[in-house]
User: Which sequence fits this backbone?
């Protein structure tokens, strides 16, 4: 099988697999994602690795799981992303994105090795404007609540500058992608086009007719910012009507971005790109919208809603089919590396999907590991999922980084990761002779944002074949010992810090 020399990656943030028509979803309409699926290898057992947003992009662009070493952060000194190696080979790389985290603290160096990049402004926390548009009569943006009523919100300012549907960030990004394919794509024999689209991530803000597509009778300001909470209705955080309204607003944004994705597919059609281009549609994670009474991405394990994600890959020489092999996001890095013949000096953790696309019975991976720094570590083998929390407390735990940054919280500018202190020392990452600063954390320390508030001694084990809704926790059964051993072996094979086995109470910690 010959391989194409061009690739398009379409990453839609917070894309819920179970809501897509091609995966059996009937609640909302996604005709263009389904249109792509009809010509793709459709992966049915694809899972997240490092979470949330920037760690997932690290998996894809660098190929190394980083959540066992650090939280949300930049590309490190010992790493080279795909784009660096492609640039050395003379392959054109283009990023088109409206994702604000790529251009703020904690997102350093992801875009810089692209040959060219285009940032479409105005999404979520993007600091684009300093005041509302004073002449915004006629804007299509509907009255909506702000994220934190007592604090300034960048998006409250940005949305006042949208004059039509095409001005919203998602539509702008998709139109820019179609324009690049139409105007630039055919001029390059080899290229990687990486589209990092923040929709359908919140805010779930759409103009009409999308806003009322699934709910026509809502009165009052729209709720476009979902809470991040569990027991949302049970605790009184949301009424049942509000919960349904938020879910419908997600569906409206999903259908809107699907509509604009159609313009990209039209451009691929018009340029006959399907004959020589690999096209990947993927996501970083899903988003809870009332499943198990959870909303957003609060401190809970990665239930199927957020962790079991869609993956479609259209290959010019392969007929569409379903592939049931266990896969994860670092495998996308390995696939693109295989496609373009790249080698990497830093340690990576993925396996190319091209062999199993050609022959689905080809052996691939026996397990996939994922999680968020300082929280649960999960492993699954294609049937069983085991999520293990720290035992006793969350320590020992260290952050390994030479670029001391993590996700900022714009609404709380004083919430920052403290600087390294006298406890820090030099260590080395697996396979690297570049010294790395290792900062141990102790009880009472300010932890990175996504590590705050984690649970201890709170483990979960599910048989996804017999219990796909994850209602029966099998912790305490003989099967748990098998999964503990599998997790222990997996972390050893990844050369994860030994302190991970200690904080999780794994058998090797006592050896």
Assistant:
């Amino acid at each position: 099988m010959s391989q194409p020399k061009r690739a398009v990656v379409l990453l839609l943030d917070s894309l819920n697999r179970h809501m897509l028509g091609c995966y059996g979803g009937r609640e909302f309409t996604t005709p263009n994602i389904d249109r792509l699926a009809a010509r793709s290898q459709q992966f049915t057992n694809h899972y997240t690795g490092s979470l949330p947003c920037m760690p997932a992009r690290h998996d894809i662009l660098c190929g190394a799981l980083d959540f066992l070493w650090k939280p949300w952060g930049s590309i490190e000194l010992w790493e080279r992303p795909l784009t660096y190696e492609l640039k050395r080979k003379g392959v054109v790389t283009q990023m088109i994105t409206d994702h604000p985290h790529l251009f703020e603290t904690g997102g350093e160096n992801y875009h810089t090795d692209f040959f060219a990049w285009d940032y479409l402004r105005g999404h979520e926390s993007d600091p684009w404007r300093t005041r509302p548009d004073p002449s915004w009569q006629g804007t299509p943006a509907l009255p909506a609540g702000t994220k934190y009523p007592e604090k300034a919100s960048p998006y409250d300012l940005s949305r006042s500058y949208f004059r039509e549907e095409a001005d919203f960030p998602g539509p702008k990004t998709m139109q820019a992608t179609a324009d690049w394919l139409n105007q630039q794509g055919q001029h390059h024999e080899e290229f990687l086009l990486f589209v990092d689209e923040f929709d359908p991530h919140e805010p779930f803000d759409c103009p009409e007719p999308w806003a009322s597509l699934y709910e026509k009778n809502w009165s009052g300001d729209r709720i476009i910012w979902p809470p991040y909470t569990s027991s949302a209705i049970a605790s009184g955080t949301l009424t049942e009507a509000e919960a349904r309204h938020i879910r419908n607003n997600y569906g409206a944004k999903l259908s809107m971005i699907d509509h604009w994705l159609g313009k990209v597919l039209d451009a691929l059609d018009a340029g006959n790109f399907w004959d020589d281009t690999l096209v990947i549609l993927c996501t970083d994670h899903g988003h809870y919208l009332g499943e198990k009474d959870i909303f957003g991405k609060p401190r809970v394990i990665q239930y199927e809603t957020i962790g079991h994600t869609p993956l479609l890959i259209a290959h010019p020489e392969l007929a569409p089919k379903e592939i049931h092999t266990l896969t994860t996001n670092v495998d996308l890095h390995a696939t693109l590396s295989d496609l373009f013949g790249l080698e990497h000096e830093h340690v990576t953790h993925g396996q190319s999907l091209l062999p199993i696309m050609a022959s689905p019975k080809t052996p691939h991976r026996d397990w996939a590991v994922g999680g968020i720094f300082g929280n649960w570590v999960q492993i699954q083998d294609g049937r069983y999922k085991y999520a293990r929390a720290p035992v006793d407390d969350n320590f020992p735990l260290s952050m390994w980084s030479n670029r001391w940054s993590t996700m900022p919280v714009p609404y709380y500018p004083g919430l920052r990761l403290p600087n390294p202190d006298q406890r820090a020392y030099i260590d080395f990452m697996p396979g690297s002779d570049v010294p790395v600063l290792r900062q141990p954390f102790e009880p009472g320390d300010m932890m990175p944002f996504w590590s705050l508030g984690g649970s201890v001694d709170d483990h979960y084990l599910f048989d996804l074949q017999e219990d796909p809704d994850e209602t029966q926790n099998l912790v305490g059964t003989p099967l748990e010992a098998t999964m503990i051993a599998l997790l222990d072996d997996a972390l050893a094979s990844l050369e994860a810090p030994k302190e991970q086995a200690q904080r999780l109470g794994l058998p090797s910690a006592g050896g």
Summary: The longest helix spans residues 240-270. The CA atoms of residues 86 and 92 lie 7 Å apart.
